[in-house]
Amino acid sequence: MNEKILIEVEAVTLVGGGAVGSDDLRAALALAPVCVAADGGADVVLRTGVELAAVIGDMDSISQEARAQIPEDRFHKIPEQMSTDFDKALRNIDAPFVVAVGFSGRRIDHQLGVLHTLVMRPDVTCVVLGAEDIIFVCPRNFALSMPAGTRVSLFPMGEVTGRSEGLQWPIDGLAFSPAGVSGTSNCATGDIALQVDAPHMLCILPRHFLAAVTKQLAALPAHGRWPARAEPHRDLPPW
Question: In 33-80, where does DSSP find H-type helix?
């Protein structure tokens, strides 16, 4: 198994080159103080004055100006083109959890690639922060306190079934799949508890749950986490 590029005892904020709101980086760094960029995300970070621990990607998006400001030993180029920069970075980070910013809000194909990577790397605890929402892979068991009326969306990226407590429309007995049943715009009746049988369910909640969700996910015991897939690394040799 390949060694990770970055091994951290603190949580990591991973920044991409997509839309980054004025409060996104601040909110992420408050929970995950180590900052890493995926390729062109380095330009976004440098404009804020935040120090970068690493830049990971194929380096086809980062500007020359940004390259000149970052020590060379912090660049980790992965030239293969079979995966996205988000995937290249996420699979090479070992940290309690990752908060990803700058991976939504612009190109739809990039955003779909991010969702694909989340379910391809279910062993990595990652929460994607957007303008209004957070997105993460639902673990085997997940419970969270929330007021009645909170929007809870569940979207399958593969075949998955589950059980729920505290949802206006329970998911018990439903066979979810991308081409079948989805659970968008469900609603909490109070505190929720979810159980799912596969690492294919994306959970989408309002962004103000970021701190509570990362705390819950980071505290999961080993048996409550999804294992890595058979090929956790896809680093390929150059052409």
Answer: 41-46, 64-69
